[in-house]
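Issue 218. Parser rejects a valid record. Input:
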Amino acid sequence: MSHHFEFLYNEWGFWIVLGGGFTPFPFKFITIASGLFHLNLYLFVFVAIIGRGLRFYLIAILLKIFGNFIKNFIDKFFNLLVILFFILLFGSFIFLKYL
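Output the parser choked on:
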């Protein structure tokens, strides 16, 4: 069973690390799991930089444009916004696949 999970983790590792880097899920769990299941180190570092960078740049751009209003909005609804983002992202992939 654990070999199957390791296979799945390595197959979907790009998306797991990207999602973990962009969401409020504790990234430490992603780093530990990636080491435990021997995810390619270069892939991990590359995707972690992209995921975390996108998150911080997106927040910085929104703060620059909307100021304190968006800070309060993000603080209050961040989890919901991330869930909505991933529903739209994966929903778009599914929609395009069956279009």
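Fixed in the parser; the record now loads. The mean pLDDT is 85.
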